[in-house]
Amino acid sequence: MTKFKTLDDLPADLSGKVALVRVDLNLPMKDGSATDVTRVEAAKPTILELSDKGAKVLLLAHFGRPKGQRNSTMSTSYVQGDVDRVLGREIMFISEVAGPSVEQSLGILRNGDIGLLENTRFWPGEEANDPDFAKAIAAHGDFYVNDAFSAAHRAHASTEGLTHFLPSYAGRAMEAELKALDAALGNPEEPVAAVVGGAKVSTKLDVLTNLVGKVQHLIIGGGMANTFLAARGADVGKSLCEHELVDKANAIMDAADHAGCTVHLPYDVVVAKEFAANPPSLRTSNVHEVAADEMILDIGGQATEALADVLKTCKTLVWNGPLGAFETEPFDQATVSLARTAAALTQEGSLVSIAGGGDTVAALNVAGVADDFTYVSTAGGAFLEWMEGKPLPGVEALKA
């Protein structure tokens, strides 16, 4: 694994030092409070560890898309109460990210206290990764910690720029993420299987192209599978299908053949004439017997069992995207069944399972197995770009 400095490389006593810590506080809100504080929970170990070692901790975060201008509805002050509650400590809100106000606040903060800086995206220099802006923020800190993998695919001042001016470290959540990703595709135990689902091939072309050269089994589900089935000559009726990408699908399957990667497509599917919960037209069909007025909405039971058998032969699994239209019953059955198989194999110690992406996390929660996977990433875009094999600026900047 690539070497990163972590909190273990810092002194045990940080009294009097100022830690600038990039976290993800872009929380979903309703009626003035967060509906999900998972991202705060993820950053909690890093924040409290630095605080308990005596550092003054200044939290850097974005909230929404204010496009380089102050917007009162996107102030990080909105999430202060949620951060207070999760950390179990009272934190100070600071309405700037640099300058006299920050310096004055540092004079008020005691060793171990925590401050929450204003939304970094209120300043154009953040998304432009302006070195002068990064330098101004860095002037208040003794060292920098990035604990926001979910923002690591952005080369912004608070994710990449600060590393040029301060000693930089990976926080505990970032450290865990990087170790998990290395175990999944960086230096995995083979055979490796990848489950890639979702609605459209077009959104995951780069993912599929990258994976066929890295895994031994590629399991394709969701609406994406329909495009591949069409490429194999199946009539998919009125299913969601990107017929214009059939040639791309064939190219990916050819590349997989040359790389020794087996592409798994369903041979039985769950179909219906309408997309609704438990429709009367619901049936299971062979992929070559889908009627013109039917749509494929999930993988069938026989194919799901076959995929479970594939996972039993593997040592590593990386999963992104559901196998069917899992939000609507009963089209969640294949996703739930295969997820439970993966979880059971993980718990018995025969499989390292890494999953990520918003829909994936939701699907694993539906299956009740999110806690049984080796690692579940809450990062969306960053996880997808990692699966595409792209370097992530926020990660690259931390390399020792």
Q: Can you lay out the helices and strands and say which pair or pack?
A:
Blueprint: E1 18-22, E2 29-30, E3 33-34, H1 38-52, E4 56-60, H2 80-87, E5 92-94, H3 100-108, E6 114-117, H4 124-127, H5 131-138, E7 143-146, E8 168-170, H6 172-186, E9 192-196, H7 205-211, E10 217-220, H8 222-231, H9 246-259, E11 262-264, E12 268-272, E13 283-286, E14 295-299, H10 301-312, E15 316-320, H11 333-347, E16 352-356, H12 358-367, E17 375-377, H13 381-387, H14 393-396
Parallel strand pairs: 1-4, 1-7, 4-6, 5-6, 7-8, 9-10, 9-15, 10-11, 15-16, 16-17
Antiparallel strand pairs: 2-3, 12-13, 12-14
Structure class: alpha/beta
Structure annotation, total helices: 14
Helical fraction equals 25-40%
Largest β sheet strand count, sense and barrel closure: 6 strands, parallel
Strand residues, percent: 15-25%
Terminal-residue CA separation = 12 Å
Give the C-alpha Rg. Answer: 23 Å
Strand order in the largest sheet: 5-6-4-1-7-8
Average the pLDDT over all residues and give the rounded result: 94
Low-confidence stretches: none
- Count the strands? 17
Query: Overall 3D geometry?
Result: elongated
Question: How would you explain this protein's 3D organization?
Answer:
The chain is of the alpha/beta class and about 400 residues long. It is built from 14 helices and 17 strands. It has helices spanning about 40-50, 80-85, 100-110, 125, 130-140, 170-185, 205-210, 220-230, 245-260, 300-310, 335-345, 360-365, 380-385, 395, and strands at about 20, 30, 35, 55-60, 90-95, 115, 145, 170, 190-195, 215-220, 260-265, 270, 285, 295-300, 315-320, 350-355, 375. The strands form four sheets. It has a six-stranded parallel beta sheet, sandwiched between helices. Strands 11-10-9-15-16-17 form a six-stranded parallel beta sheet, sandwiched between helices. A three-stranded antiparallel beta sheet has the order 13-12-14.
